[in-house]
Amino acid sequence: MFRAITRISSPFIALGVGFAAFPKDWRKGNFTSDRKLTSFNQSVIEQIQNTNEYKKLQEDESVTMHYSSQTFPSQHHKNSVGSGILFGPNLMEIDPIIFLNRDQGELTGFYHLGRNLISQDGQIHNGVVSTILDEGLCSCGFPLLPSKKGVTAKLSIDFKNQIPPGSTVILRARVKEAKGRKVVIHGDLETYPLQEGEQPLKIAESRCILVEPKWFRYFSWLQVF
């Protein structure tokens, strides 16, 4: 009888211990404002910072600026696409710079894409474009969800052009609808000229439906998400 009870109860005990211990480990990477990844292309960052759009966003008191890597603990960077697998020289060469207006549901993000992110045609792979749009539009919509977190229910992308390698791109996203556990976000991605005489190139238009599963509220006390 004792063995039977132990055999049945042990998995539940282990699961409970795991849930209790995991949040503590998750919080080891403190969310500090000065923590960011090392950017591999400082010259691009300086050029972005010298643009009128960047300066205007920085002066806007309704907008907060952060680096993409600051949105989750450092021990999980290696498991992320943008700050782990695809981050480095000739890949995603800067820690994406994000400006977010939480109240209005508006986001502007700056990215730089290196030559090793190309597909067989020599242009930046559309999978990279999809990743930027998915992560960016979700980040734009998260603040308007009850628990501030959710999952992508549907992502639609209308590809217009391909990105030449070595390009800086800008994402402009805005919330179109926010109702309960559902948020709809639209976004445009285009190249961001840093040299005089260059013209922006529309890369893609996207629409994201972001939802918060009902069971998310049961994990809020664990601070897992």
TrEMBL record:
Xref: Pfam families: 4HBT (PF03061)
SUPFAM superfamilies to which the protein is assigned, alphabetical: Thioesterase/thiol ester dehydrase-isomerase
Domain of life where this protein originates: Eukaryota
Domain Thioesterase: 122-190
Entries under InterPro entries matching the protein: HotDog_dom_sf, PTE-AB_protein, Thioestr_dom
Protein name (record): Thioesterase domain-containing protein
Organism: Debaryomyces fabryi
